[in-house]
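Inputs:
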Amino acid sequence: MSRDAILSRAVDFASVEGLEGLTIGRLAGDLEMSKSGLFGHFGSKEELQLATVDAACAIFGREVIEPAAQAAPGRERLGALCDGFVGYLEREVFPGGCFLAAAAAEFDGRPGPVRDKVRGAMIGWLAELERHAEIAGADDPAQLAFELNALGQGANHAYQLYGDREAFTRARSAVMRRLP
Amino acid sequence: MSRDAILSRAVDFASVEGLEGLTIGRLAGDLEMSKSGLFGHFGSKEELQLATVDAACAIFGREVIEPAAQAAPGRERLGALCDGFVGYLEREVFPGGCFLAAAAAEFDGRPGPVRDKVRGAMIGWLAELERHAEIAGADDPAQLAFELNALGQGANHAYQLYGDREAFTRARSAVMRRLP
DNA sequence: CCTACCGATCGGTAGG
DNA sequence: CCTACCGATCGGTAGG
């Protein structure tokens, strides 16, 4: 069983059960291997959590950031990033919704390397929004990035909690109205 | 040790560690009582979680809904609800930020009575926003309620993850601009 | 990669 | 409200 195959399951598991609910024993059972066999790939639960966050970030890059890079920098790219984010929620790339949002909510009150990595990834996403908001000539790029991200996270939240698919339409329409 | 005194600690504990991280043993140790003494008040961990959610909802009502009831129904009340929500985040009524947001993120993928209660509370909050959006004459009250809630949740998220107090100002300014 | 094990902690119970 | 305990599961280790 390769490390990548383990992490592929770990990412899906953690998006539903949380990074703390991702226990070595259950993950090993699910992959039909021994606990110590799985453990040997990572060396500690924290290293498994960190590797899982990295794997999730790679998927986010492939599913959201890279496709949007087709669009011209500035307003067009900003729209593509937001639309791509909503699409990634809509397609259920992770069964538990946005992995980073779930990990952020779980670890924001627990100092340590996992929180730091999640925070770094979320800051990177906001910086990408802000960069294109600035190119697009927004009055206050950080403000616009905050609002656009909040709308996307709001759709994730509504869909995960109520199964309300209309939230995707709401987020898209609000983003459209708010773009410079 | 009264049930209310136990729940007061449980609410703070769970807002940081999560409703699953709220273990009977740690809570009992923190309150300097025996596990079984605490357990007797609730009968199961799930009942403790449900009672903790109820206690948090009561605080939310007292801190956000009730003060806003001073404002006239419609646009004024809608502004007071949003402002009150941001103020409640700013005052750190719960040490881990918005209790319901944290509980929703934790339980949205786990069917059961805890998720149902959290969902019911969140739907009640959104319905309150929507009701006053309608009275205020919004074109699409549900859309407005979605956006206003997303902005508040975005401030909670940013403050909890980055400690960014400017997020409160950002949320308030976006809400102001969006009110009908 | 495995079996077999460690001490700690989990939710919960018996009995008072 | 307590002490004392239950089986299950946790992260992690020894040894191969």
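Chain A has a mean pLDDT of 98. Flag for discussion at group meeting.
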